[in-house]
Write a structure and sequence with these properties.
This protein is mostly helical and 153 residues long. It is built from seven helices and no strands.
Length: 153
């Protein structure tokens, strides 16, 4: 029969260090607690739900189980369920890992690639401003000629 070795007993701590250790432990737990998911408008939620559904269908077309995709993506099955449900609380990294496992990560290059609104705003900023100097000079010339017409008697 093999002897069972137990770990050494912890050294007795003074009250201060024991209390400080508890505070440190609790603050670590609080810091690692999940944050509230962002507020998502209905239109955005529909987009996320549609993305999740497309990811679920892609997984099923490849005949991959939830467990296999979650393991390959390095996420929990619960997180995979959130991604496939379009949960806004799932991180972008989780979505990206699932896309990568399914071989669809290249599709991210299409996001924002054709930024029509941004290019239009940039083009408007690059256009030369209307020449305001001549308009200002004309007003100044009119006001000075009007004041010259009203000479004191």
């Amino acid at each position: 029969m093999a002897a069972v070795h137990s770990p050494p007993a912890p050294a007795p701590e003074s009250g201060f260090f024991r209390y400080y250790g508890q505070i440190s432990f609790i603050s670590t737990i609080i810091a690692n607690m999940p944050r509230k998911p962002p507020i998502v408008f209905p239109q955005e939620q529909r987009l996320l739900s549609a993305l999740g559904e497309r990811l679920r269908l892609a997984r099923k077309r490849r005949k991959l189980s939830n467990a296999v995709v979650a393991q390959r993506a390095g996420i929990s099955r619960t997180t995979l369920y959130k991604v496939e449900a379009g949960d806004a609380g799932a991180t972008l990294g989780s979505y990206l890992r699932v896309l990568a496992v399914l071989g669809l990560e290249g599709d991210l290059n299409q996001l924002g690639a054709d930024d029509r609104v941004g290019r239009k705003l940039q083009d408007l900023a690059l256009e030369p401003a209307p020449n305001r100097r001549t308009a200002t000079r004309a007003k100044t010339a009119k006001s000075s000629s009007a004041s010259n017409d009203e000479e004191p008697t």
